[in-house]
Predict the 3D structure of the following.
Amino acid sequence: MHSRILRSLQGLELEERILNAGAIVAIISVFLPWFSGEWLGGEYRLATGFGFYTSFLGIGVFFLNGLLLGLTLVPLIGGPILVRKKYREILRVILSSAASLLVLAALTVLMKTTFDFPRMEVRFGIYFCLVGNLVALFETVLRFLE
């Protein structure tokens, strides 16, 4: 079964592999640090995508990218086809654009917080998440326009 899944993953089109790689990068980067620094009172604070003021946005990004990845992986594992083929690309565009907008919203909240608290800084995790989502969005738009 393991070799069947690997063969089916290798049989995917290049655009679909890039799209899923972008979604995987975005999912993993939600667990990376998004925000850190010295908070009021001198305590050091480190927040991932699931913490701080942007926790709901990070949870939304995680689930949207998980669903985007699930649209490809569930049928490959042998599960049911979640969405009909003619609606799949439209749903992918909607999911990836919503996830990209949520990451941009989280980034603006964190940037505003760094202006208010100069000892805090935006970390690399949110930038990886933004790049992963933009790659997924770019590939979904290309597949939609074909």
Q: What stands out?
A: The chain has a mean pLDDT of 91.
